[in-house]
Design a protein that fits this description.
The protein is of the alpha+beta class. The chain contains nine helices and eleven strands. Helices cover 52% and strands 19% of the residues. The strands form two sheets. The protein has an eight-stranded mixed sheet, with helices on both faces. It has a three-stranded antiparallel sheet with strand order 6-7-8, with helices on one face. It is flat. The two termini are 32 Å apart. The N terminus is likely disordered.
Length: 382
């Protein structure tokens, strides 16, 4: 009876050991590639080619966290095996046995922590995470009230970008007489911009009493946010024959002309009918450059959305699809409440969030996204 009782425990130890060996094999391949990249980057021929050097350095940096975790895991596994071996041999002095037991327990716990970290690091990365982004905000249902809230969201993202050390640049804005924005587009440049901002795509709903409301009734308005990774020219090449480019005079709120020259640009992509306008710059050339950047990003986003639609049919992420028609968040002014509907997160920090304190919301979304991906990876591996 005793032998039968011990068998499951023994099998569990062997199973854990096999998992550890499998993890080590995967990490060994990563470490080998990391070392190879380190050697390549020191070669004069590579350093003389800026494009190749930049590509290899980017891969090297992306593997650094995993390589460091690999080293830590290997060291912890070695310490765990040493402590385990001492305890199995027996005949230890009480003090030495106590130290071995402590080492065994601590390294076992450390291995479990490192395994979870490594599982996350081994997840396929979104190839767009390191890219700059183009953000487009449009007032939806609610008229002027929606336009005013669109301006509030533009301010919120601008302040958030500042806290992250990112640079924002206005591309175009359709400003109303009351200071709202029917629509506004801007770029965000900085490390990891898309990895954080991508969670903001969707419909944002605001509930508040408009200043023009005499009876104090709460109105509900909506604003649509689209976050697109900035497309490089090499990623999406535009055929000049597919473009119709028109110039017109820039205008301010209420149609008032603010520029006597025709510096504003309207670019129409003939195959899709997609139209982009830019009038923020006084230079026609700069406006054209910005408009083409937005058009390129929109077309790339459209192409990626078509590809993602096939995957979305198989599995829909808990955090959401990023579809601009999906209602993702409600901002309730009377209650001072912000609720993200994708993960059921409610925070009574409306003022600070609208002042750019978005990290708590985005961190929770990123955590839920990683958990969903780990679950999916586990189901695929089962």
């Amino acid at each position: 009876m005793q032998a039968q009782g011990e068998a499951p425990a023994r099998r569990h130890v062997i199973s854990s050991r096999k998992e550890a060996l499998h993890m080590t094999e995967k990490l060994r391949a990563v470490r080998a590639r990391y070392d190879e990249l380190g050697q390549l980057l020191q070669q004069p021929g590579i350093a003389a080619d800026p494009a190749q050097y930049a590509r290899l350095m980017k891969e090297y940096k992306s593997l650094t966290p995993l390589a460091e975790a690999c080293d830590a895991y290997t060291a912890a596994l070695r310490a765990f095996d040493g402590a385990k071996e001492l305890l199995e041999e027996g005949g230890l002095e009480p003090e030495l046995k106590e130290l071995a037991q402590q080492e065994y327990g601590e390294t076992k716990q450390r291995l479990a922590q490192l395994e979870e970290e490594i599982k996350l690091l081994l997840l396929p990365k979104d190839e767009n995470d390191d890219k700059n982004v183009i953000v487009e905000i449009r007032g939806g249902a609610g008229g002027e009230e929606a336009a005013l809230f669109a301006h509030s969201l533009y301010r919120m993202y601008s302040m958030y970008a500042e806290t992250q050390g990112w640079k924002t640049e206005l591309i175009s804005a359709n400003v109303t007489e009351l200071g709202g924005m029917k629509e506004v587009s801007f770029s965000v440049e900085g490390a990891g911009a898309y990895s954080r901002m991508k969670f903001e795509s969707g419909v944002h709903r605001v509930q508040r009493v408009p200043e023009t409301e005499a009876q104090g009734r709460v109105h509900t308005s909506t604003v649509t946010v689209a976050v697109m990774p900035e497309a490089e020219e090499v990623e999406f090449e535009l055929d000049p024959a597919d473009l119709k480019i028109d110039t017109f005079r820039s205008s301010g709120a209420g149609g008032q002309h603010i520029n006597k020259t025709s510096s504003a640009i309207r670019v129409t992509h003939i195959p899709t009918g997609m139209v982009v306008e830019c009038q923020d710059e006084r230079s026609q050339y700069k406006n054209k450059d910005k408009a083409l950047k937005v058009l390129r990003s929109r077309l790339l986003a459209q192409k990626q959305a078509e590809q993602d639609a096939q995957l979305a049919a198989q599995r829909k992420s808990q955090v959401g699809t990023g579809d601009r028609s999906e209602r993702i968040r409600t901002y309730n002014y009377p209650q001072g409440r912000v609720t993200d509907h994708r993960i059921g997160l409610t925070l009574y920090k409306l003022d600070s969030i609208l002042d750019g304190a978005l990290d708590e919301v985005i961190d929770a979304l990123a955590t839920a996204d990683r958990a969903e991906k780990l679950k999916a990876a586990g189901e695929e591996g089962a």
